[in-house]
Amino acid sequence: MNGSPRLLPLLVIAALGLAACKDDKPASTKADPAAAGANPHAVDESKPLEVGDAAPDITLKLNDGKEVKLSSLKGKQVLVYFYPKDDTPGCTIEAQGLRDGWADIQAAGLEVYGVSTQDAESHKAFIDKYKLPFPLVVDTDAAVSKAFRVPLRLSFAARQSFLIGKDGKIKHVWLEVDPKEHASTVIAAAKS
């Protein structure tokens, strides 16, 4: 098997990428108790965002090159959903569910932004292939993932979602997402 030592690392990376998009549970986000006592007013960045927290005031870099400052969307409900990788089974099911529920999403007055660590070219191909009606956020440096305190596994974001209310505060958090049911649960939460 000439050349197989070079092929093995590539196969391992490919397998890890596919495994990242399965319907598994997110990595633990427990805080370090020693660090928590240092400053009682400091934000614990290892702790997930919670309902009532202010949404991070960050700029989203979209697949088409445009940028949207999250705070500029105040007055609208916004879904920021994180997924591991473009065009993989669980991620495709989740995106198609949002696409298929688009009329209800629009009726609920909801803006949708999908976030993963792939580049604009990968996002564009994913949007084109599945005719997604919403933009995808380019997060190659994981800045958006970090701002939302979404854990990364081997540079892939965990599957988590955040519904931001019209007041700019987190209205609902999904730390574990069922790709098949996500669209309907988001629509119900947006209508509540």
TrEMBL record:
Catalytic activity: a hydroperoxide + [thioredoxin]-dithiol = an alcohol + [thioredoxin]-disulfide + H2O
Residue ranges of every copy of the Thioredoxin domain listed in the record: 49-192
Coiled coil: none
Residue segments, region Disordered: 27-50
Source organism, top-level taxon: Bacteria
PROSITE patterns referenced in this protein's UniProt entry, alphabetically: PROKAR_LIPOPROTEIN, THIOREDOXIN_2
Enzyme class: oxidoreductase
EC number: 1.11.1.24
UniProt keyword list: Antioxidant, Disulfide bond, Oxidoreductase, Peroxidase, Redox-active center
Bias (Low complexity): 31-41
Protein purpose: Thiol-specific peroxidase that catalyzes the reduction of hydrogen peroxide and organic hydroperoxides to water and alcohols, respectively. Plays a role in cell protection against oxidative stress by detoxifying peroxides and as sensor of hydrogen peroxide-mediated signaling events.
Sequence similarity: Belongs to the peroxiredoxin family. BCP/PrxQ subfamily.
Protein name, entry field: thioredoxin-dependent peroxiredoxin
Species assigned in the record: Polyangium sorediatum
